[in-house]
Design a protein that fits this description.
240 residues, two-stranded antiparallel sheet
Amino acid sequence: YLAWSATEFLGLPFLIACMISLAITSLVAVAIDLAVLRNLLRQERRLEAMIASLGILVILENILPVLVGPDTKILTYDTSRTYVLNWIAGAPIVNSHQLTALLAGGFVIALLPLFIYFSTWGLRFKATDDNRTLALALGLQPWQLVTQTQLLCSLLAAVSGILYALDRDVTPEMMLRPMLHVTIAIVFGGMSTLLGPVGGLLAVTLIWHFSGVFLATQWQDLSVFTVFLITLMIMPAGIL
């Protein structure tokens, strides 16, 4: 919505609008972290923090139509071009916005593990995650790292939202289905490795699309949940 507003009302170029939206989104995330989540997390009240996050989601989802109207918005930076992939069975059709999302997503997936495992910040992050008390005793500042992590997550979420909006439309409810699939994917893939949720999301996406090929589309979500529950009964820690 921020990127759309910057292009629609301010007439800014698309990439500049994206940079502005990333900056503002990160500031909003840090403000939410400091004002709402920090005290709950300090008290180890993680369930309450999750419920508070869902409450913030509902508030933002209802504020957006008041600010910009309930109608669907179109976010675009050029005319979408379509390509037929004849070299793949079934000859799927993709557009340039989807290819942009694939390339950007692949770049982030490749870059993020390198950043986490090899940068100084990543080493501090892993140390704090392993043992927060020991990290504090060694002079690290766990809550500063928590804020920085919120900042990183908000940037990744903002990039994801922009890429999703390029392929779809911008509506207040646009995050509901991706959020549902991502939540399943995190548990499905397993949280013991950084790329576990990535593998889980690929599995969830393949199940969702292939079930639409062989079954009616209204059974797609049911197929995902069925495979998800069966997998958890066999591998409670996830597939990875």
